Amino acid sequence: RLTWMLDRSDRAESAHLAGAVVRARSRPDRAESSEARSRRVRDLGAQLFYPLSPHEDRGPDWQDDPASCLAGLEETVEGCRWLLEQWR
Q1: pLDDT in tens, the chain (88 residues)
Q2: Which of 9, 13, 30, 51 is the least buried, fewest Cβ under 10 Å from its Cβ?
């Protein structure tokens, strides 16, 4: 039963990501260049995987919020591709 549940959760996660890609492709990019989107994906990925270290200062407005990083990555095609590549 546990194996079945794990397989099912993998399929559900894949379906969720596929839906996010479809939504991102159908949404017009609001004058944000490909380079700006790539930079945003890179910044969100760094924030998600490399949280603040004791020797690093990211400024007073920086917050450790993995959920918002993930949501930001799922907003664009580039972000969804980046997530898929990380999970591979």
Answers
A1: 888 888 899 889 888 888 887 877 776 655 567 788 888 888 888 888 766 555 566 666 666 778 888 888 888 888 888 988 888 8
A2: 30
Whole-model pTM over 0.85: no
DSSP 59: -
Give the end-to-end CA distance of the chain in Å, rounded to a whole number: 25
The domain spans of the chain are 34-51+64-88
